[in-house]
Amino acid sequence: MGFYLRMRRAMVALSTLSALVVAWFVLTTVTGLISSGRFPDPFATWAAMRQLVSPGYAGSTLVVHVVHSLTLVLGGFMLASTLGVSLGLLMGWSRKAEAFINPIFLLLRPIPPLAWIPLAILWLGLGDAAKIMVIVIAAFVPNVINTSTGVRTIEKTVFEASQMLGTPRWRFVGEVLIPASLPAIFTGLRLSLQAAWTTLVAAELVGALAGIGLVLNVAQQDIYPAMILSAMFVVGVLGWLMTLLLGFVERRALAWRTA
Amino acid sequence: MIMEHRISLRETLAYGAIGLAVFFTVWSALVLSGVVPHTFLPLPTEIIGRFITLLTHTFAGATLPQHLLASLGRYLEGFLLAAAVGVPLGLLMGWFRWLDDILSPIFDGLRFIAPIAWVPFAALWFGTGFGGPIMIIFAGAFPPCLINAHRGARFVSPSLIEAASMLGTGHLRMIYEVLLPASLPSIVAGLRVSAGLGWQSLVGAELIVAANGIGYMMVQGQANVQTSTVMAGMMSIGLVGFGMDRLLRLAELTIGRRLGQPT
Predict the structure, then answer these.
(1) Labelling B145: which of A62, A235, B47, B108 has CA 20 to 30 A away?
(2) pLDDT at A216
(3) Percent of chain A with pLDDT over 70
(4) Which of B17, B208, B227 sits opposite A122 (nearest CB)?
């Protein structure tokens, strides 16, 4: 995309978003067409946001909620990715392992991660362990699928070459198998991260002791639209930041591709 | 040997059977030996037994088929609404550049908000009975409908568009008679993704709001510490989700073959 086109798109995006904010202001504060009981006006939202930052809402301040949610989602995501990528490598590498595991996988896969929430609460309660469990379940599957597909799409000549050169198995895994399937692994990681975040928000909405989902839940019970909007905003920004971070890691890890 | 060679179908089936046998044996052994408390993890057979019982016996106000029917009703409305809005809008955005420029930033911003985060507003605006859950399903199912229709329309071969515009085709006919058929494979693929996401959002919505449906049944099972009910619910959700996915996969293949596009 050329410079002019990029500028044009950025300008249009900026004006669209500004128009949206103006429309929001006009519809709520100025004309009152949308009642404040249904959707908050910009000032109320700003006030709720400030209240959330300090003194806090739903038991703690924004920082505490955010740190709580992020720790869970990143911890669960890393655990799931380590397990999922390893299993995916194994399944991609060994047809026997794949044949062995696949039926179990097919049995469990149609159950959406969110459907595990009641079971997780039953087993582990409302605390962090239950959240980790559902996040791991949500983030595990995309990792396995994409990693094993990635291994399968490696060209045969690569294997033959490393075999001919007598590469030891451990070096083969570290220097051929993983790097060659890295693009597919990252596709899996991106999908997993998204699934992990959605699942955590849902799990916290169902029941939690802290976290951004709890803020949403309490705001819903208090019928406090400005706080609902603020919490949604935080959910969106955090999701965006995590995607950004993963994109950054991906560019670093795959730098050899463009070079 | 660095890479394993392909194995025969017989071997695949044999390994699969062993895998499943190990899975269910370990599960049963855990329960029967008392390592895992029985209330936490019922035997596989008990879950199927519970499933059969729930087919005719009422739990949480309805039988399992009634709960499923309530869920499917919500689901179909939310999903159809998402398809009915998302696909035409995606095609329009693929055809009119200015519409794309205006709407894309909005959707890009909304993309990062998890569908389930709409639950409080959905409950506030449309109540917890029918409208609220439908909005959550819509929020989950809408993006793939829009994105795939948009992408499909964008990648329609320029020669088709040039040929059509040379013949003096207007905007509407161009969208309806050129873009829509040409991007159908992409659209159906998007519908399949959104069917899955919508189904998952429905379950989430019913766990939080709603007073009937399969998700509600599971929450009630959880509250009553009936693990077998919860797991029978998971089983039904999996079965329905699997069935829908197969159906749409079939549609995807049929349409792909008929239009002769290599996928």
Answers:
(1) A235
(2) 94
(3) 98
(4) B227
Between positions 19 and 38 of B, the ones with CB within 8 A of A are: 19-20, 23
Answer yes or no: do A201 and B208 touch at CB < 8 A: no
Per-residue pLDDT at B158 = 85
Contact at 8 Å (CB) between A183 and B23? no
Contacts of B256 (CB under 8 A, 6+ apart): B185, B188, B263
Specify the pTM. 0.88
- Which 8-state DSSP code applies to residue B4? P
Which of B4, B6, B230 lies nearest to residue A119, judging by beta carbons? B230
* A76: amino acid identity, one letter: G
How confident is chain B (263 residues) per 10-residue block, as mean pLDDT? 71 92 94 88 94 93 93 94 95 90 87 90 88 92 94 87 85 86 89 92 89 92 93 95 92 78 45
Q: How many CB atoms neighbour CB A211 within 10 A?
A: 29
CA–CA gap between residue A141 and residue B189 (Å, rounded): 20
- DSSP, collapsed to helix, strand or coil, labels residue B132 as helix
d(CA B185, CA A193): 28
The pLDDT value given to residue A257: 67
Set out the domains of chain A in order of their start, with CATH numbers. Answer: 43-258 (1.10.3720.10)
Nearest CA in chain A to B242: A110
DSSP, res B157: -
Q: Is A5 on the interface with B (CB under 8 A)?
A: no
